Amino acid sequence: MEEYQLPFFKEEGYVRKKCPRCGDFFWTQKKDQELCGEANAYGCAEYRFISRPPTRRSYTLREMREAFLSFFEKRGHKRIKPYPVVARWRDDLFFTHASIVDFQPYVTNGEIPPPANPLVISQPCLRFVDIDNVGPTFGRHLTIFEMGGHHAFNYPDKEVYWKDQTVRYHHEFVTQELGVDSEEVIYKEGVWSGGGNAGPCVESIVMGLELATLVFMKFKVVGEELVELPIRTVDTGYGIERYTWLSQGTPSCFQAVYGPLLDKVMREAGIPSPDYKVLSRLGELSGLLSLERESVRLEARRRVAAEMGMELTDLEEVLKPIEKVFTVTDHTKSLIFMLAEGIVPSNMREGYLARLIIRRTYRLLRELSIEDKVLDIVDWQIDFWSKDFPHLRDMRNEIMEMLKVEVDKFKETLRRGESLIRRIAKSLKASGHSQFPKDRLIELYDSHGITPEIVKEISSKEGLEVEIPQDFYTSVAERHIQASKTVEAEAKIPVEIEGLPETRRLYYDDRYLREFEAKVLKVIDGKYVVLDATAFYPEGGGQPPDRGILEFNGGKSYVRDVQTVGKVILHRIEGDIPPVGSKVKGRLDWSYRHNLMRSHTATHIIIGAARRVLGEHAWQSGAQKGEKISRLDITHFRRLTLDEIRKIEKLANDIVIKNLPVETIWLPREEAERIYGFRLYQGGVVPGRVIRVVKIDGWDVEACGGTHRERTGEIGLIKIVHTERIQDGVERIIFSVGEHALEVTQESEAKIREVADILGVPSERIVESSRTLVEENRELKRRVKQLENEMARSKATEYVKSARTIRNVRAFLKTFTDVKADFLIKIANEAVKIDPNLILVFISVNRSARVIVRVGEEALKQGLDARIIADETASVLGGRGSGRPTFAQGGGTLIDKVDEALKKAEDIIVKSVEGV
To answer: Does the predicted TM-score (pTM) go above 0.85?
Structure first.
């Protein structure tokens, strides 16, 4: 309680009470108020601002954003541009989900100073934890929203402001700036945690709507403990969309935020304007709605239906299409922000969430019968939001292209998925299931991208019920929402190196240093050497460790591996062991290092070229530099074409020819981000207060700890050997540089000459000759197939004539040696066309025996089943068989029992037809 005893509350006549329904403590100026006043699932209040907004005037989202930013600017806060929605500076998050994320962990832990103190920002955020609630709760839940944050960072020697002033600022903004009556503003007590930090908080409530959370971050969460932080951070989150909604009093937040865009989508979907009174009443009760409390949601809708004199089913019929349009407008906005920042839809990491949003959107539009409008709606979103976020317009073509490719993929998934779902549904039903299991729904979505709604649509036709969990998409998103931190091979500092000084990295002082002298500080287990300084580069950033030798007092050690542990560099050696305290001379395998330096600089050049050829969505996804062959993984939404590969290669070699300088600069993290932006983290997050920036002027800038050449001209030829698709959304470029690139090129030329010799033509004519050869081969295959078909028909006619009658069917059984099974199947298919009352059993013998059983449609009616005959015949041969009633196959290795197997087949036929 002591945390919340603020002078402000006392001065303004606020009293502390406990809500008897939700159990939370709150502060109010109304002495007779009993409930906390928040519209929630406990039913503590309804939204009272619908149709009667409490603000002085109505605001658009843009106007509300500006009102918020200007208010705090006038009160000494510096306005900061919003950060990206993709949190590239974090290795534990995919997306920016709150404004404080911009400053975690480096500012909040005191490692770097904030960009201003105090500051104010309106940060676009993405959250998917409540995705199933988006739409049904009328805008209380959104996947994309702007969080207004005014932040102050309080140091031990400098306090900016803390709890009391934070609440005063908020109250002044709501009452004086927006004109809300002070008595309408309630403050609820709470505790907040996130991003590894925690602290007390108060939430502001106006007429039922939670508007802001004012967090006083003063703890670091370490396991189960709260450790006091040296920096106390004011972390506020003002819901800019919610303030906008409050000011307009519209039935839903979507009407306030999207306005004419929402109306346009409604018209496209052919949804008539709903009864305003019905929608408003639903809006008033929407604070109670949550898919986690289904009974409360249904009760709220029953109330509205009863008040309006409607049946619940009629209300649902009106409401469901509107909710779908709400969801679509939210999701398509999320999409443009994600794709504009280079997220490529895929089945991994943040790309998985982009795909989830796309497929959910397409499915909703399909239910509204306007799935063909998905690209149009996204285009409208770009137009609508690019006035405030111009980068969306700049990325329009890439957004639309990525989306079109992804939608086409989903259409193909749906086409292929129908038969898969039917098979699964039939199998489940045959095994006694009456309902589709939830785990199979998730498996189908995760593995095949098939939405549960599609599963339900198809399975219901097979007589299998499908109950889709209300939180299906939320649970799927939660499985993919958290980034996995990269765990170092040796996260814990071994006892043996504790207390040792940081190793001086001589390769940063002189990138061409080949030899050096150093002092041995420690030898561990007779094979790990710690020096006071080294020119050996330790493995890191996709660059292998250096190798070489250490010489000392007539002894010699071979450096086989170099690794970093904390701030100490370990050299794994073989050979003589240098004494502790002795001087050693280190010699690098310079040819090896020289090639790695060229490969590393070439990697930076190629990613710059890929970005210019493919677009801004091309980000580095991984890299491994090698002495002869290197690889670079980039995000891209389809396979690279030959033309794109050639363009990338040409641009890369143009940069080599220009012989540009390769600069390395050490900069404070905040300064590097301010100058170069978050493309710095192309190769991943780089830790530390000061970071090393590698810059090829006008081409590429990255935070990088690797070794590089001084000029691009020192690399030599860059040759892309080949590319491959290593996973959905990621292309791998395999390349060589320098003399190794020349070797690759010469090897390719040698192969071309060899092919020319085989074809007997000059090298310049091999393409033309190869085409001719392929066409001739294709024509020969066509003629062979034609002859096979003719021969199959001829043999079929012969076997039909030779078949013998067994009661009501005719049968033909025969063994063959070294005859292809495909040809025998053709004969069997032709034969049953001629005589549908025929059964054929073929056994083809090679190294093993293959059984083929074909039953004509009329023979099937006589009680014959190809599956039984194939299985029992194959069992004689030591194997099994399976298939369909009209066609089955089997086989075994006991080829000496072929005659016995054929006799078995005949016996089964006789017994089957005699049993009819």
So the answer is: no
